[in-house]
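[User] Once you have settled down, look closely at the record that follows, and write a paragraph about the fold.
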Amino acid sequence: MNYIIGAFKPPCTISITFADGKTRKKASVKKDNGQTAMVPLFESKENIVGEVIIEPMHGKKVEHNGVKIELLGQIELYFDRGNFYDFTSLVRELDIPGDLYERKTYPFEFSTVEMPYESYNGINVRLRYILKVTINRNYVSNIVEYQEFCVRNYTPLPTINNSIKMEVGIEDCLHIEFEYSKSKYHLKDVIIGKIYFLLVRIKIKNMELEIRRRESTGSGPNTYVETETLAKFELMDGAPVRGESIPTRLFLSPYELTPTYRNINNKFSVKYYLNLVLVDEEDRRYFKQQEVTIYRLQEES
């Protein structure tokens, strides 16, 4: 029985390491098995440098038709699981056809790599970057090894960042104005605003501010939209009176937000909304929603 198991074992091991792997910042990514792993963190236009080590099992010869390493940026939609759409694909040939008898090290470098989209793991979609090493072989299956890494891209402070003003009204019953100081927020920002009660003829029991994330994937009839409420913040408990104003201050840093992603490679979008919820004494709920832009600001070193 052991001979049968041994027959299917690959005749060598492949390891992929990054040149600055020990000092480079790490980020957590979710693996296929649901567990998380820490992987190196890059941003667009960086050099990705390292080495591949192939080590044949003791006493085994590895006949091959060439060895290559690919850098792939891929999108996988979960309703089409297993099919990856490559938006970035670079390749380096590491070895010409031949035989391997002992451990061999191959350096590799991908210079100033364009990685326009961030790594993302959502409800119905994931975007990932991997290094893929393939040992091509005749008559038997190729030997393949993967190494994932994470990409985050940073945005400077926006030059224009207009405030948001909105009104909620129910004819002759309720008229509220609310104002937020800006419409674009970085991931560690604070949402500061004010709510004015101009007319109150219904009995408001409480009021909340929610942060919602809307992920849309696919297109046409295959569009899937998932909305998550990431945060709920009670603004008021009890009945407001006409002329009252309530300040709002909501810190974003405790929540697991991503930047806003708009139509990434025509495959998916991720948008964020501030949702104001009012509940009256009969438990009727009134909503007003406003999209805001979230971006990743370069962290201070």
